[in-house]
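Hi L., both proteins are below.
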Amino acid sequence: GIMEGGHGSCRVLPAPGRGARCHPRAGAAPGARFVPVPAEASQEIFRIASMAPGALLLEAQKEYEKESQKADEYLREIREQQLLPEAVGQCIEAAGYEHEPDTQKSLLRAASFGKCFLDKFPPEGFVRMCQDLRVLNAIRDYQIGIPLTFTQYKQLTIEVLLDRLVLRRLYPLAIRICEFLRLPEMQGVSRILAHWACYKVQQKDKSDEEVAQAINQKLGDTAGISYSDIATRAYDCGRAELAIQLLEYEPRSGEQVPLLLKMKRSKLALGKAIESGDTDLGEGTGEPWGDFGLWGSLLGSCPPDPKNVPKFPQFCRHQERETLKDLYNQDDNHQELGNLHVLGGY
């Protein structure tokens, strides 16, 4: 039995010696072979004794490489019929549906040869096809094993293909594809690296220090990477100390606070909140700053962080006025204490 689809789809042929047919939704029977259905452009070009414009252009290019005058004869025949743009388009289209790289190259060389004799042929289609075939040939490699047809690749979209590579943990290939296609970092490399880092924190055979260092060396200051998200994943995997180490790489202090609160690291959380200068960080966390007991721990029995002390009054002015009064009383700062009482009267 044979199943046929549209251009670029597959026929399912039973293996030799088997008579059963496969239901299209049930998948192929054991031993079935998938044979791509040639696209119309490929059929036109490679048909025996074909006089299609693409076939003539392919022959012209081959004869040109042999330095034969027949190249001029084939080319003149195409141009006399004003079919050169169609011939170039046929060769480009057919290249997409060929699985053999040598055949792809032959067709693209013919298209490039034909373009030289056209004044205004848009190059975008040719460039895009070259890019698509580079990607397709990479994923069709036996070591990767994703034998998509050109039609399937286009319907799947590059984003979904990258997701499939990530699920297979083929991070290097996914990153190379992103760089080759020049995808925006948020859509491409940054997203892949974030997935890689979240996978890395799950590896139990490495110490917290080794994992944190490896992630930082790989990610650096890559745009769009949130170390706090990676740290959250580490904490969810039961690696609290690794999470804290990863948070140290997060350049935005305010982004560190929610996870520190979740981890019950109140002193660190308030220190980062003061450092960020964002007075709204306590909102929505379910952890009122005044209940932390941090006033004593930060500025009492424990030595305060010198860089945070000057910012603390400004922070408390918005969040905890009573704590600020205690601060001024302890420092005998009567002038600021008086100013605070005056402001409170309005």
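That was the first. Here is the second:
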Amino acid sequence: LAAEGQGGVGGGAMSRPLGAIVVSDDDVYFEEAVDANKIALAGILLAGVIVVQAAATLRALLSRR
């Protein structure tokens, strides 16, 4: 172990589980983990992009008249 004040220079990392290796009597397989929060956030972001694009399209069409 490093003496007090001598160790650690930062460089922290973060990771998330990709899944689990499942071992049963008959089989061994990898079961992927699903991040529901990431899927929900992607859906909300996509909906926001669609709303902004629709507003810009309507604004362009109405300004021609």
